[in-house]
């Protein structure tokens, strides 16, 4: 079975599928399965972009919406996990996995599936210690905090994965396992990413829980992404014979190593189809009582506790779950849309605040397995439960073809938050219209959770109103989104006004600058300020402007902010220095390794700064010798030419590996920074300074 593995997809499905098709054309062999290691960005519409932890300037619909709407269909079966740049509201609808589009399957917070007998496990998200022991309490609309914590892995998912037994063929994680670099060529890695050095030495690069899983499961292959570089390693089992082949891949950009094709021997013949893993289903069933939707700290069972602490299922437990699924573990093709897909031709699209939705796939799965849907529990605790009949109408109006079975929720506290399910129970949800005794006695545990207030719980749950189901109202739309704005272009007013009193204004400005300069200069020191009092005004302006241009250019080349991006961390690329702030760690700066274009630009700017400095000196010397002014003009003109050359040459280097664009064309994930803007400003100031020095733009005073 031929499997293509992709690093960070970043929503570029069209490019990925086209690349796979080109590979198939080259060797004439079909690829059976595509696996993506996170940052999939399954954005269905503009509302989903509001749930992605990405700066607004980098948000892009990309191409997933075409596969969600049915405009296109994935040419091969695709399986993916979540990363740290996701439409989290959509993935939260499928905590146990499900189809996000036809032929595209999400593994959930954690999951295990089988494809033609090949066992594939995965863990979504990245590790952050402060959220590690919390429950899945986040819900849309997200706050500035929860939009990030929602994709942080929790201990319950890792605990469940540790219960697996038997062989795992492929394991997927977005984070690298911590310490995996010591099993590969660290020198080559540090040549690509020198700012990894401190993290590698302190063993803080990567996820400790992922390494715990690797050393417990030792899958045949472990694939990761996240750090945007390719890295391979072999991790042998300590005291055993198993070896895990680790491979991290780059993001989907030109000239990046983002795709790898491998062959894995399948255990079954016949058509490629996706099946549940029986052991994983049983683990989910047995550990349902460990699920939490609160922000308080929750511990997993341990061997010194009072109850069961290992949940690797027995044959009898697996048989019970097998019968629940009617002895058929094939994953049903039951994809349904829950929101209206993006339409680029619809100019009347309204952007609304996202809201918590229940996905019919999750409802069916939880009902069959007898476990809780975290989203349903969140709806209960916030008292926004769906009304069966009216939610169907609302879904049809706002979401197109949303098909959902009726789902009613019990307000009985014991049934909602029960830890275990009896083997012979039916696990059906029901409506309890009698007065409830649901009391938020544990509010103290959730005092830090901004999403659930104590007053709200007391005010809604303990109300005397016996109506237990309410319609979910439409979320408030963004200001002005309902108004239609005309796109009429108007010609600007081209009337040119005479610059009256210009000489007065310029004289006042120059005199004020000189007065300020002299007032702060030490006594009896022949500063530039003192000398300029005896120069003509145009020369003074030229000196000041050339000086400003020189300072701006020097500052620009000393800063690392020529090209910036926040994909995979805050990265700033410069001509002399580059810096990276990696996932809330201290900033690391290192000397830039320049390609020829950027090296030529740096040389031009450096020499230009020297010439501008010489121009300023010559103009100052003109106070005593007026004959040096022509030389100053020519030196300034040379600096201007060099700056212009640098401005033309620098964008030619946008193809470098750190950017991955084309000459004169930056990718959407990158943009110019303040240093580049300062240089362009220095260029224009130099041009204006040269005009003043040549006395061609204004008459003599």
Automatic annotation (TrEMBL):
One of its GO terms (molecular function) is RNA lariat debranching enzyme activity. The chain crosses the membrane at residues 502-520, 540-559, 598-622, 634-654, 674-693. InterPro entries: Calcineurin-like_PHP (IPR004843), DBR1_C (IPR007708), Dbr1_N (IPR041816), Metallo-depent_PP-like (IPR029052), Mosmo (IPR037663). It comes from Pseudoatta argentina. This is DBR1 enzyme. Residues 432-469 are annotated as: Disordered. It comes from the Eukaryota. Residues 235-375 form the Lariat debranching enzyme C-terminal domain. The gene is Ldbr. GO terms for cellular component: nucleus.
């Amino acid at each position: 079975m031929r499997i293509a593995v992709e690093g960070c997809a970043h929503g570029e499905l069209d490019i990925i599928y086209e690349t796979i098709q080109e590979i198939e054309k080259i060797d004439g062999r079909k690829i059976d399965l595509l696996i993506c290691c996170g940052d999939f960005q399954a954005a269905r519409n503009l509302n989903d972009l509001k749930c992605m932890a990405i700066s607004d300037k980098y948000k892009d619909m990309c191409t997933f919406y075409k596969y969600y709407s049915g405009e296109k269909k994935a040419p091969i079966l695709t399986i993916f996990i979540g990363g740290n740049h996701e439409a989290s509201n959509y993935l939260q609808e499928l905590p146990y996995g499900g189809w996000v589009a036809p032929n595209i399957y999400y593994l959930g917070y954690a999951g295990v599936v089988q494809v033609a007998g090949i066992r594939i496990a995965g863990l979504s998200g990245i590790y952050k210690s402060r959220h590690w022991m919390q429950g899945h309490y986040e819900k849309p609309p997200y706050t500035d905090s929860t939009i990030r914590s929602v994709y942080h892995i929790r201990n319950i998912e890792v605990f469940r994965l540790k219960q697996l037994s038997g062989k795992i063929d492929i394991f997927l994680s977005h984070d690298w396992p911590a310490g995996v670099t010591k099993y590969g060529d660290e020198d080559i890695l540090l040549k690509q990413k020198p700012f990894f050095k401190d993290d590698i030495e302190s063993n803080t690069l990567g996820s400790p829980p992922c390494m715990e899983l690797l050393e417990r499961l030792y899958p045949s292959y472990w694939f990761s992404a996240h750090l945007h570089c390719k890295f391979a390693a072999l991790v042998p089992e300590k005291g055993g014979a198993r070896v895990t082949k680790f491979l991290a891949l780059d993001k989907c950009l030109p000239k990046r190593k983002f795709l790898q094709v491998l062959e894995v021997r399948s255990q079954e013949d016949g058509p490629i189809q996706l099946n549940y893993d029986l052991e994983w289903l049983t683990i989910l069933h047995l550990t349902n009582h460990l699920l939490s939707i609160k922000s308080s700290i929750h511990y997993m069972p341990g061997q010194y506790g009072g109850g069961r602490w290992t949940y690797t299922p027995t044959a009898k437990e697996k048989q019970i779950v097998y019968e629940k699924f009617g002895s058929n573990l094939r994953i049903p093709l039951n994809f349904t849309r829950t929101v209206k897909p993006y339409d680029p031709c619809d100019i009347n699209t309204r952007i609304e605040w996202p809201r918590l939705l229940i996905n019919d796939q999750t409802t069916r799965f939880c009902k069959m397995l007898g476990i809780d849907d975290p989203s349903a529990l969140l709806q209960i605790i916030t008292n926004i439960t769906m009304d069966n009949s009216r939610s169907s109408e609302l879904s049809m109006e706002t979401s197109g073809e949303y098909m959902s079975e009726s789902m009613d929720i019990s307000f009985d506290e014991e049934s909602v938050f029960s830890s275990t399910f009896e083997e012979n129970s039916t696990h059906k949800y029901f409506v309890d219209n009698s007065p409830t005794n649901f009391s938020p006695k544990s509010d103290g545990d959730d005092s830090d959770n901004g999403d659930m207030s104590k007053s709200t719980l007391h005010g809604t749950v303990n109300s005397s109103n016996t109506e237990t189901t309410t319609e979910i109202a439409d979320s408030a739309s963004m200001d002005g989104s309902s108004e239609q704005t005309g796109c009429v272009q108007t010609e600007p007013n081209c009337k040119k006004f005479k610059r009256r009193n210009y000489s007065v204004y310029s004289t006042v400005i120059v005199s004020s600058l000189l007065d300020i300069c002299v007032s702060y200069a030490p006594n009896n020191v022949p500063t530039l300020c003192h000398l300029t009092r005896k120069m003509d005004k145009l020369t003074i302006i030229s000196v000041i402007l050339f000086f400003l241009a020189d300072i701006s250019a020097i500052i620009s080349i000393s800063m690392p902010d020529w090209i910036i991006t926040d994909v995979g961390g805050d990265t700033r690329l410069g001509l002399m220095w580059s810096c990276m702030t990696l996932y809330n760690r201290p900033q690391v700066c290192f000397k830039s390794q320049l390609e020829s274009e950027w090296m030529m630009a740096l040389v031009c700017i450096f020499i230009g700064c020297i010439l501008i400095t010489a121009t300023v000196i010559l103009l100052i010397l003109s106070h005593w010798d007026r004959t040096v002014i022509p030389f100053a003009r020519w030196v300034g003109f040379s600096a201007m030419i060099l700056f212009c050359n640098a401005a033309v040459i620098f964008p030619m280097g946008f193809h470098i590996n750190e950017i991955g664009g084309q000459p004169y064309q930056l990718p959407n994930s990158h943009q110019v920074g303040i240093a580049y803007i300062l240089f362009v400003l220095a260029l224009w100031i130099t041009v204006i300074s040269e005009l003043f020095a040549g006395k061609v733009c204004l008459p003599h005073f």
